[in-house]
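Lab notebook, design round three. We kept the backbone fixed and only want residue identities now. Task for the bench partner: fill in a sequence for the structure below.
Input structure tokens:
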């Protein structure tokens, strides 16, 4: 496990981190019990001046980071010791290093509960490994495949053209016949615009998308998939 004085050059460096950033550093390599005093003794040893800076602020920052770890299920109080002693959970030990914690944190950015099953299976692993462009492309590819299958349209149509035909306000097989024409037109633009905005750029070039933008687009793709599934189910019933 790293010594904190080897990780942080100053108190300002430590205080610049959020609890979810500092927590994995504090837990890295630990498999046995420890107390908060272990960290403070590293930073402010009795034989030297130590870390400097505002010791109270550093103490609070470490306490916040340990609190975050406990809230995430990575730390518990050692049941065989007094309340000062902490120990990593089995989940924490399985995440053996800050890289795995980074993946965990990124996974929290992408809300799995909001995703259709197809996207959880085919997109989430791409997102977790940081391949955001490919994750977004795959998400909207799933939308395109779902639209083609639900509408019964052929392979000669693709991309925005497929969306415009499937959701055509007059005779599109996936149009919502129960709403006014203006709402049908809005849905047509929603699907064709989303494909043009999200899928087309990453299919032609490296966009260099970040995790937050990618997560938002993947959630949008999930929303579109839900519409298609509902519309396809309704058509089969009719």
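Proposed sequence:
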């Amino acid at each position: 496990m790293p010594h904190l004085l080897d990780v942080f050059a100053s108190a300002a460096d430590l205080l610049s981190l959020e609890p979810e950033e500092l927590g994995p550093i504090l837990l890295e390599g630990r498999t046995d019990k420890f107390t908060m005093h272990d960290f403070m003794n590293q930073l402010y040893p009795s034989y030297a001046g130590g870390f400097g800076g505002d010791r109270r602020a550093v103490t609070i920052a470490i306490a916040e980071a340990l609190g975050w770890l406990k809230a995430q299920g990575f730390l518990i109080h050692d049941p065989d010791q007094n309340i000062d002693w902490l120990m990593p959970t089995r989940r924490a030990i399985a995440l053996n290093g800050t890289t795995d914690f980074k993946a965990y944190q990124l996974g929290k950015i992408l809300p799995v509960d909001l995703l259709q099953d197809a996207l959880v299976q085919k997109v989430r692993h791409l997102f977790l490994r940081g391949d955001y462009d490919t994750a977004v492309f795959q998400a909207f590819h799933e939308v395109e495949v779902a639209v083609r299958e639900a509408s019964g349209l052929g392979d000669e149509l693709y991309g925005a053209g497929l969306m415009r035909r499937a959701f055509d306000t007059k005779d599109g097989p996936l149009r919502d016949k129960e709403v006014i024409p203006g709402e049908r037109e809005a849905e047509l633009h929603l699907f064709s615009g989303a494909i043009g905005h999200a899928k087309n750029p990453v299919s032609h070039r490296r966009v260099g998308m970040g995790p937050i933008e990618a997560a938002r687009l993947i959630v949008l793709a999930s929303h579109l998939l839900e519409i298609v599934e509902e519309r396809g189910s309704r058509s089969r019933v009719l």
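Keep this in mind before ordering anything: The two ends are 63 Å apart (CA to CA).
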